[in-house]
Amino acid sequence: MKGFAMLGLNKVGWIEKDKPAIGPMDAMVKPLAVSPCTSDVHTVWEGAIGDRHNLILGHEAVAEVVEVGALVKDFKPGDKVIIPAITPYWETVECQMGYHQHSGGMLLGWQFSNVRDGVFSEYFQVIQADGNLALLPENVSVEEGVMLSDMVPTGFHGADNAEVAYGETVVVIGIGPVGLMAVAGSNLRGAARIFAVGSREICQNTSKLYGATDLINYKNGDVVTQIKDLTKGKLVDKVIIAGGTLEAFEWALKLVRPAGTISNINYLGSGEYIKLNRIDWGLGMGHIKIIGGLMPGGRKNMEYLSNLLKYGKLDVKPLLTHRLKGLSEIEKGLYLMKDKPRDLIKPVVTM
Ligand code: NDP
Ligand code: ZN
């Protein structure tokens, strides 16, 4: 089968591989729609998780089941399914601790395009299908469904980890597709005022659809000053970091109130250390929480998030700015994600 792979650091290309053999709990699927992710860009061009050779990329897909192992109970060939970016083994100690994202070790719930061939392929294997797949609701298109693989769960995880509550003021730094879903998640959790920090006009306009009340362009001057001017110096309840550089943590610490939360979902692909100003952090006694999280996968999470689309509580169509057709267009889609033209939010490739 054909797949689009990371050949090595800074190198991508098409390769041929044997179809993977599936185990008794697994499913073999073929993609119906996939989307390239900024994470693929960090992995290939920043070497953020180290070198990988001939590893098929991609972790966002809606697919059709073509074969299931003998122990799979709830899925059958022909089913249209959402593939979460995170597909762990569910029987580990880390899962029992509540963190399936790290099943088997740090970040190892993230299998596709990390430790296992990804979804940019004619076929791919999903381990533990009953735990990792979810049926795509009938009234949700395959393009919309792909946004449930990663963009919706990641953005919402940012808002969940920040424990955004009614009436709060939230700053979202970075409003690409992930940050936009952090805005939407904060809005659904009841935030009253949401500052959206980005520069692409299309992202700024879209952030308003998802509930942003104040737009900040980081290219127009110091972000902290711009926000504090608008709050008349008052600190905010929560900051979600979904883009930018390591400096975003310094801004966040200057913006968040005592006992507030800084919730990072950005994949920190480069740089060494994050600076925490001791005074901004309340001399170490400010009860300010800093948390960073990998998105949750799992069937339950996918089913509940897809309910939001099914019943019209969340519309992901505004994210889909570039629609491509055919497996071979994956390459173009990945370069769009790398080059980030000003009119891009997210590309999607249907087969
Ligand atoms: P994008 O590149 O589309 O968006 C990044 C955002 O950050 C844009 O709004 C961009 O603004 C803004 N930005 C860029 N530079 C700066 C800066 N110096 N200061 C402030 N803001 C800046 O990325 P995605 O939305 O696709 O992904 C965001 C991150 O989430 C990535 O690191 C990705 O790898 C990660 N990710 C994490 C996951 C997880 O499980 N935690 C899962 C999936 C993705 P501009 O308008 O100028 O472009
Ligand atoms: Zn992704």
Q: Any overview of this molecule?
A:
This protein is α/β, with parallel strands linked by helices. The protein folds into 2 domains: 205 residues, Quinone Oxidoreductase, Chain A, domain 1; 138 residues, Rossmann fold (3-Layer(aba) Sandwich). It has 11 helices and 16 strands. The strands form 3 sheets. Strands 3, 5, 6, 7, 8, 15 and 16 form a 7-stranded mixed β-sheet that branches. Strands 11-10-9-12-13-14 form a 6-stranded parallel β-sheet, sandwiched between helices. Helix 5 packs across helix 6 and helix 8 packs parallel to helix 9. The chain binds NADPH dihydro-nicotinamide-adenine-dinucleotide phosphate and zinc ion (ZN). NADPH dihydro-nicotinamide-adenine-dinucleotide phosphate binds next to helix 1 and helix 6.
Helix-strand blueprint:
Layout: E1 2-8, E2 11-16, E3 27-34, H1 38-45, E4 55-56, E5 61-68, E6 80-83, H2 93-96, E7 124-126, H3 129-132, E8 134-135, H4 142-146, H5 151-161, E9 169-173, H6 177-188, E10 193-197, H7 201-209, E11 214-216, H8 223-231, E12 236-241, H9 247-255, E13 256-264, E14 289-292, H10 299-310, E15 320-325, H11 330-339, E16 346-350
Parallel strand pairs: 9-10, 9-12, 10-11, 12-13, 13-14, 15-16
Antiparallel strand pairs: 1-2, 1-4, 3-5, 3-7, 3-16, 5-6, 6-8
Bound molecules: NADPH dihydro-nicotinamide-adenine-dinucleotide phosphate and zinc ion.
NADPH dihydro-nicotinamide-adenine-dinucleotide phosphate is lined by residues 37-39, 42, 150, 154, 173-179, 197-200, 203, 218, 242-245, 265-267, 294-295, 340.
